[in-house]
Design goal:
Order of helices and strands: EHEHEHEHEEEHEHEEHEEEHEEHEHH
Strand content: 15-25%
Structural class: alpha/beta
Shape: globular
Largest sheet: 7 strands, parallel
Radius of gyration: 20 Å
Bound molecules: uridine-diphosphate-N-acetylglucosamine
Helix content: 25-40%
Strand order of the largest sheet: 3-2-1-4-5-9-14
Length: 346
């Protein structure tokens, strides 16, 4: 198959290109080489077309392409409201332009990188009120060290539940809002074109080639970078917030499976969680990394960020049934290896 891969120079894109080529697919890569992700003095890979989807046409690159793998995005959670236009432009307007170009060139199959952030705080159960979306956490609760969200109806304690792909969207950040909109644009394009899209909702991705931390990095890059500086990871809240850490080799494999099978999917957008299926608290994850690095024990700071969601755990069942994807790298092994995995040198 001939694949157009956007974000080909990025952390996940690099691994997808490698695995797709190992399965004899032809990969046409493009990347904007944004300074925010690659630094100002990047030396672009000559085999990757330098194009910015916000402004550049890609019809020529789409010639003869069977399927598009759209990974290019502005990542992170957003630092403040000034980031809103950049998320909308990079993740939504650029995607809309790509979809229009696919319509012009007759490409009807798409795999698009989405995220578990579309679910926000996800699903909870209240003993009194049943299945509920959690209330937004209150400042006075967070300041008092009460980190779990409350029931939106009775204000009482609630317990997290595993999320499946039918869980309603509840985006809490600018990035999350842009990823929800991106899925909606892709679904609308499917309807207009009789096309097929698979949205892969990644959980917390980590592994070799992660970029060193920036204000937009996730926790794995931040902790790995702290270790590289000889510092202890700094764990926020009470360290008991739950995530699912999925290795980048597994994420790339899920993409290749989706690229190979999107043509057999029904028209419209199908979403799959891409997760290891194993839960880890942030405290456990920090301890695993610190132990493997032989460095200082993590520090529990008690700090919190208003935009953080508390627990996100998703079912990997649909990806297993729909794509034959099951994560192969156990997080305790992959996270221990992360302590010495190389970070990306821009
Ligand atoms: C992360 C990514 C998000 C991505 C999603 C799924 C970022 C900023 N977030 O969301 O873009 O779509 O995974 O792949 O890239 N924490 C600490 N210490 C720190 C930093 C964070 O304890 O120094 C804690 C946070 O309080 C939070 C948890 O780690 O509870 C995860 O934080 P983070 O990785 O930033 O965000 P996610 O919501 O998991």
């Amino acid at each position: 198959m001939r694949i157009l891969l956007t974000g080909a120079a990025g952390f996940i894109g690099t691994h997808i290109a490698e695995q797709a080529r190992a399965r004899d697919h032809e990969v046409v890569g493009l990347d904007a080489y944004l300074a925010a992700a690659h630094g100002p003095d990047v030396a672009p890979d000559p085999s990757i077309a330098r194009r910015d989807l916000r402004t550049d046409d890609v019809d020529d690159l789409l010639a003869g392409v069977d399927v598009v793998c759209h990974q290019a995005a502005m990542v992170g959670n957003g630092v403040d409201a000034q980031d809103l236009p950049a998320y909308a432009e990079h993740n939504d307007a650029a995607t809309a332009r790509l979809l229009a170009a696919m319509a012009r060139t007759g490409v009807v199959d798409l795999v698009v990188a989405s995220s578990m952030v579309v679910y926000g705080d996800g699903r909870y159960a209240c003993e009194r009120d049943g299945d509920v979306p959690p209330a937004v956490r209150r400042d006075d609760d967070l300041e008092a060290g009460r980190f779990d969200p409350r029931c939106p109806q009775c204000g009482g304690e609630i317990t997290w539940r595993e999320i499946d792909e039918s869980t309603p969207f509840l985006p809490r950040t600018s990035y999350a809002a842009s990823k929800v909109a991106q899925e909606h644009y892709a679904a609308a394009w499917c309807t207009l074109q009789g096309a097929r899209a698979i949205a892969l909702r990644y959980h917390n991705v980590y592994g070799p080639g992660m970029p060193a931390d920036t204000p937009y990095s996730g926790v794995a890059a931040i902790f790995r970078s702290a270790i590289a500086r000889g510092e202890a990871p700094r764990v926020f809240e009470d360290g008991r917030q739950v995530r699912d850490f999925v290795h980048v080799h597994d994420v790339a494999r899920a993409n290749v499976l989706a690229l190979e099978q999107v043509g057999q999917h029904p028209t419209g957008l199908t979403a799959y969680n891409v997760a290891s299926g194993r839960t880890f608290t942030i405290g456990e994850m920090a301890a695993t990394l610190a132990r493997a690095a032989g460095g200082d024990e993590p520090v529990l700071t008690g700090d919190f960020r208003r935009f953080d969601v508390r627990h996100v755990v998703a079912s990997p069942d649909a990806a297993r049934e729909g794509l034959g994807f099951t994560a192969e790298i156990a997080p305790e092994d992959g996270l221990a290896r992360l302590a010495t995995d190389p970070l990306r040198t821009r």
